[in-house]
Amino acid sequence: MRGQAFNRLINWLLPVNPYIELARPEHGIIAGIASVSAYIFSGGHNPIVSLSLFISAFAAEAFLFITNDLLNIAEDSINRPNAPLVSGKARRRIAAASSLAFLIASIIPMLILIMLRLISGLPLIVLSIALLLGFYYNWRGKRILVINNLIIAIVTPLTYIYGLTCANPSPNDTNIMLLLFMTSMVATMGREIIKGAIDAVGDSRVGIKTVATELGMRAANEAGLLMTVAAVVISIPLMLASLDASAYIFVVSIIITDIIMIYCMILLIKGNLEGYRRNTLLGMSITLLGLLISALIK
Questions:
Q1: In CATH terms, is domain 170-298 a member of 1.25.40.10?
Q2: Smallest Cα–Cα separation from 148: which of 96, 95, 75, 99?
Q3: Mean pLDDT over residues 33-40, rounded?
Q4: What value does the mean pLDDT of the chain take?
């Protein structure tokens, strides 16, 4: 859900600033959209909850990206010499203060909603899980074989569960969001494994263990292919549940995504890893767009 075109748009809209670059606002915007879309799709209609959810998701993403750069300066000095903290464009103390501010900004909206009795305590639990897993990934988890990919695979689609828990969903809406989470998790796992294969040389130099660095490129490609197949299979019950909810646009978006994923499998078999990485991102973006449109017209 993070395209180069979207990144260029954000860079055009926002002034060039090393601290903005650290926060990666494009990721936070997408996380916010995913959370709010899941909330509205699941029956949520309160604009205060929607706004709070967006702010919280955005701030959580910013916190995790800034702490990632703070905790991996040595690694970035090799792989990203022009990164703000490595190049000296951004100061560590200010970056640390910014990360703390974003952490607080991610939690406070949920506490206010709980105090106003607009939500239960469950969304705060989901948020805490995402923050803890993401921070552990930044601190140590990214260097542990499989665990690194698994954490990203869980945290990335957790935005759907975050939005779900802020609403009062029907049983079928709950099933749809859980299936969407599972499908996205498996697809993201496959994509992360292949990204590890693309970055195998750099990862080896900085001590990051991936399937590609430890078991070889062939094993990584096979694992990525298996996860992509599994994601397409899991999407079938997701489509059936969505049909029951008359979410036809969402169903169409899933079908389009599945076609793209099948195309990505062919690219992977042919050894086009970069094409796989780029097009799986496109497929995931189409699914999110379909969810957003379906939520708005539901």
A1: no
A2: 75
A3: 98
A4: 92
